[in-house]
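Please, structure for the following, as tokens.
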Amino acid sequence: MDQSGSYPRAIVHFDGDSFFASVEQAKDYKLRGKPVVTGGERGAVTSLSKEAKMLGAHRGMPMQEIRRVCPSVIVLAGDYTAYSIYAKRMYAIAKTFTTKVEEYSIDECFADITGLNESRGQSYEEIAEAIQEKLELSLGITFGVGLAPSKTLAKVASKRNKPAGFTALPKEEIERVLADTEIYDIWGLGGALSTRLRGLGVITALDYIQKSDAWLKEHGFAKPVRDTWLELQGYPALTLSTGAHAKPHSVMVTRTFTPPSTDKDFIFSQLSKNVEGACAKVRRAGMKASALSFYLKTQEFTYHGVQLDLSAAYDAPPEILKAIRARFDEVYAEGILYRASGVTLRCLRGVDTVTPDLFGAYAESQEKEGVFRAQDAVNRRYGRNTIYLGSSMEALARPDAKYRTKVVRGFVPASKDGKKSLDIPHLGVVH
């Protein structure tokens, strides 16, 4: 069947259902069919099985609350070594069909199957479902799968029939599907951008693609936002990153401090240190961030955070810290004990793809980059924190503060304890 009209490019997105919890159930048959959550080591739920969801549990729920609301839930610490093994196996299975596979995150990947319909004598739908079947039989977990002409549309499609569903979204179906897709649900826009678009009357993804390019430019939307606009119309503006080390799409750095503190300056200093670490990782990847979120976690394990867009794309702390300071009082409250903080740099783009802003903020940031690259070189040679920002000084004055980092959407977290031992999980289901 000739599908060139429906799929000028045929992109498939595979999204593991409740990935961490599903891996735990695949590893241990005694957990199958039971309510399982992971994140015991973090104090909040990172993943939950469908059985746990049916009991009212949700992602981010504090462990003390989940034990009260759902006493039968089985709480597990995350086994990131096992999740990494399953992720690599997922990528390898997809690559038996096509070499054009983007290892997007620990539980997701994209595959470009354009042209395989002719070489395999199957429709694109049949090929996508064949990959899905092989993944599920080999790994013992299910996947939401979407087929579409672009990466963004494939992400829209993979969400439509989760868990364990498959959705094909050819060009002729785009408007019908986007008409009932909230703008908040579109990958790449983020909460702040979506809120801004809603304020301009863009409620659904269909509303968005019906705007003109001139309208986007008039309202100051940069190239990444216009790329999403093209992608949703079925034009593949985003390429697959198929290298051995795919670029991250966001970087998250968290810091836990002991004892908890109410000191405003000390807590901001913790965020400053997080920003320094995140920016260093972004610079190493050759990326810049145009959006961010930050949060504070209280002694009672409640979270308070803010998402915001930046005036331009940055890989150095000054403008990022300026933006955080302007919103800090929305998160911090006097007299409350805080035990952890976190910063996520989002909407990462390669340095060569960044478009300068209209007001000169990007040009100003370029002048400061040399300083921070010199700082990176010194710290690599003489040790981390040899040179650091003055705003991070109070955080570093606490030698007992625990520090952990996590890079998401492109990198797999390292083992927390640094152990070299490895449990090899069973990759499959006994039939």
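The two ends are 35 Å apart (CA to CA). The chain has 16 helices and 13 strands.
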